[in-house]
Design a protein that fits this description.
Elements (H helix, E strand, L loop, with lengths): L13 H13 L11 H8 L4 H14 L2 H19 L1 H4 L3 H12 L9 H17 L1 H5 L1
């Protein structure tokens, strides 16, 4: 409900905008990838065959609640555009996975597997960016 003046100079710093976006997703009551899907996405990213892995991720994405799916599709489309300008902004799909993976996808209860989970979180976001058209198309 707060009115924001996007012409304000504070929004010129891309780090402020990115930080606000990450904070929005981090403060949702449930992550964009709902908790009940966490283990399923982790199992899908572990699949060795790339074609099967992409199909599994696509199937899971299609099962998401409609608001999550719609938001995810728009967000990943935007992040894909950012990755396409990697030569200017230095943000590759791998970098975006590192930045957004733990924010968008996390287990409901943190266990001792945090480092392993982080690796999978990053890989899931990276795959969804690199295979956007196959997953959302």
């Amino acid at each position: 409900e707060e009115k924001l003046n996007l012409d304000d100079s504070q929004w010129e710093d891309i780090h402020v905008v990115t930080g606000a976006l990450k904070m929005f997703f981090r403060e949702l009551p449930e992550p964009l990838f709902p908790y009940c899907f966490f283990e399923q996405f982790v199992e899908a990213i572990k699949i060795q065959d790339n074609v099967t892995r992409i199909k599994s991720i696509r199937t899971l994405v299609k099962k998401l609640p409609r608001p999550n799916y719609d938001t995810m599709k728009i967000l990943f489309e935007h992040l894909k555009k950012i990755a396409a300008k990697e030569s200017v902004n230095l943000m590759s799909t791998q970098s975006l996975g590192i930045v957004f993976g733990p924010t968008l996808l996390r287990p409901e209860k943190e266990t001792g597997n945090m480092a392993v989970h982080m690796l999978y979180q990053n890989q899931i976001v990276e795959l969804m960016l690199s295979e956007y058209s196959k997953i959302f198309g």
